[in-house]
Design a protein that fits this description.
The radius of gyration is 24 Å and the shape is elongated. Strands 7, 8, 9, 10, 11, 12, 14, 15, 16 and 18 form a 10-stranded mixed sheet that branches. It has a 6-stranded parallel sheet with strand order 3-2-1-4-5-6, sandwiched between helices. 42% of the residues are buried. 35% of the residues lie in helices and 26% in strands. α7 packs across α8 and α13 runs antiparallel to α14. By secondary structure, it is α/β, with parallel strands linked by helices. The model has no long low-confidence stretch (mean pLDDT 94). The longest helix is centred in the first third of the chain and has 17 residues. The protein has 3 domains: 101 residues, Rossmann fold; 172 residues, Dihydrodipicolinate Reductase, domain 2, CATH 3.30.360.10; 82 residues, Alpha-Beta Plaits (2-Layer Sandwich).
Length: 430
């Protein structure tokens, strides 16, 4: 057996707690596979007295993680705090500067500061690994960096957030409203009990899109504004209408090269109910890559939770223990491109538009006339009146139109007193 490897774990929430137990449980197996001896030399959390599944060793516990390097010789640090800035960024920077390899599941940190941190890792000839930051245990990042390294990837897309996928799937399955299913997801631990906003509004998925883009296209992380839309406005009514159209609603993260320009987005999509992506349900994630010569490559699995996350964290650990020092994003920072971005206004999609209106003559014609004025061509209309309330639901499926046209057109409808609330827009997946 070779030298002892000292490990620090910063952050003992769900992931950090699970990881600590997994390291102890699988220590011998990892040592056999790598020829290295493992020692958890330091752990850190805000609350030492919090109840955990293991007894805290006071000798290795640090309330302030920045003090770890003053007291302990550390070789590998796990950052499991999960913030994009603050202590997460500070401890990773300090570790890398001290020539300590870092493993993190923190997608917010990597999406925001990945370029800076990768340069720091390269300068100090240590690893910065973040497989667990995207799609949990699926191993999509290693697939791109290693398995598909010689392929020219043109597009990466998929379901990147298990919480939203569970909510949409469960609404369809149980015939319950968005609010009721969200509460159910919180009880089951699929959604944050306090504030699930980052899952629901698409920000969580978008951080993952930015990381996927950087790896797939060898570009520096883009800072440009993108189309980001969550699922908060989707109602059970939309899911039922989608079913009538042989479609399903999925929150997709999409990254692709359009005319050699980078386009990134997260938004709900209507997808065919017989497509692969349309049949990924529950908390599952699925990522689809399109490139040459591979064609289409699909990876699916549990994308969230401490178990799948820990699986990827330990995969990164084994890679480091085997003595592989890699550039964090697959190639040196200096060789990564700064891609020009595709103009979001020019993005083309067919649209699903739902209007809640007063049931009176002339309302439908006023809507269609407005759409025509903005060169939005109608493919199909579904009108469902409610005689008791004297209201009606109008659903319009359009031919492809630009983001600019749809945005300008929909803004006008807010002034129409016969339209009872803001129209619901869902894009059809191209």
């Amino acid at each position: 057996m070779n030298k002892m490897v000292n490990i620090a774990i910063v952050g003992l929430g769900q992931v950090g707690n699970y990881l600590y137990n997994e390291l102890n449980l699988k220590k011998k197996s990892i040592e056999v596979k790598t020829g290295k001896r493992l020692n958890i030399a330091a752990i850190s959390a805000r609350n030492k007295s919090k109840k955990r599944k293991f007894e805290v060793n006071k000798e290795i516990f640090f309330s302030n993680p920045l003090k770890i390097f003053e007291k302990k010789k550390i070789d590998i640090l796990f950052e499991c705090v999960g913030l994009s800035d603050g202590i997460s960024k500070k401890i990773v920077e300090k570790a890398l500067k001290n020539k300590v390899s870092v493993i993190t599941p923190n997608k917010a940190l990597i999406a925001k500061h990945g370029d800076q941190l990768s340069r720091l890792a390269e300068k100090n000839k240590v690893n910065l690994e973040f497989e667990a930051s995207v799609a949990g245990g699926i191993q999509i990042l290693r697939t791109i960096k290693d398995g598909l390294a010689t392929n020219k990837i043109k597009k990466v897309y998929g379901i990147l957030n298990g919480t939203t996928n569970y909510i949409l799937s469960e609404m369809e399955k149980s015939n319950l409203s968005f609010d009721k299913v969200l509460k159910k997801a919180q009880i089951l631990g699929y959604a944050e009990p306090g504030n699930p906003k980052l899952d629901l509004n698409g920000i969580d998925a978008f951080s993952k899109v930015r990381i996927l883009s950087a790896l797939a296209f060898n570009n520096r992380i883009s800072k440009k504004d993108c189309i980001i839309q969550g699922i908060e406005k989707i109602e059970l009514k939309d899911i039922k209408i989608a079913n009538q159209l042989n479609l399903r609603i999925k929150l997709l993260g999409i990254s692709e090269l359009i005319n050699n320009r980078l386009f990134e987005t997260v938004h709900p999509c209507l997808v065919g109910n017989t497509t692969y992506i349309g049949n990924v349900d529950g908390v599952m994630n699925a990522v689809i890559l399109e490139g040459k010569p591979i064609g289409q490559c699909i990876l699916q699995g549990e994308g969230a939770g401490p178990g799948p996350t820990s699986s990827s964290l330990l995969s990164d650990l084994l890679s480091i223990l085997r003595g592989v020092v890699k550039d964090p994003f697959g190639i040196p920072f200096k060789k990564r491109k700064s891609l020009k971005t595709f103009n979001n206004d020019s993005y083309l999609n067919s649209l699903y538009l739902r209007f809640e209106v007063k049931d009176k003559p002339g309302v439908l014609s006023s809507i269609t006339e407005r759409l025509a004025k903005y060169r939005i061509s109608i493919k199909r209309i579904i009108q469902t009146p409610d005689k008791k309330s004297k209201k009606a639901t109008i659903v319009i499926i359009t031919h492809k139109t630009s983001e600019l046209n749809s945005r300008n057109c929909l803004s006008i409808f807010k002034k129409n007193k016969n339209i009872l609330k803001s129209p619901i827009l869902i894009r059809l997946y191209n």
